[in-house]
Amino acid sequence: MSRSLVGVGDVISQQVIERRGLSNHNLQRTTKMMSIGFFFVGPVVGGWYKLGFAPCFLGAFLGISGALNGLTVEENIAKLKRDYMDALISNYYLWPPVQIANFYFIPLHHRLAVVQIVAVVWNSYLSWKANK
């Protein structure tokens, strides 16, 4: 599931946020993002579904994305210094209100769908952040 959510997030990032158009869609990038979703996001989030884990998760996600995109260690560190805090702050603006609303107002049988819908939006942001 996380592979699909991260992949959809990257497609939205490329087509809606970056406005690349279908002819300029980077399929290799989408495949890389789906791999990150399958091998990293799914196992980590599945085992550590806590907001307190976000600082480690975001740093690792951005670092892995940079490595898969061919950044040198120095370039990757510079990218982390530039993008990490913004991603972390955005995480805390988005997820706590979503989860509070989800647990207080959404019936139990719809909670997973709410999280998955918001995850597509979040993954679009992360894809844009990791690949800009």
UniProtKB/TrEMBL annotation:
One Gene Ontology term of the molecular function aspect: channel activity
Annotated transmembrane regions: 57-73
Topology versus the membrane: Multi-pass membrane protein
Coiled coil residues, start to end: none
Keyword NADP: no
Gene Ontology biological-process annotations: regulation of mitochondrial DNA metabolic process
Record keywords, A-Z: Membrane, Transmembrane, Transmembrane helix
Subcellular location: Membrane
One protein family per Pfam: Mpv17_PMP22
CC terms in the record's Gene Ontology section: membrane; mitochondrion
Similarity-based family: Belongs to the peroxisomal membrane protein PXMP2/4 family.
PANTHER family with a match to the protein in the record: PEROXISOMAL MEMBRANE PROTEIN 2, PXMP2 MPV17, PROTEIN MPV17
Protein name as it appears in the record: Mitochondrial inner membrane protein Mpv17
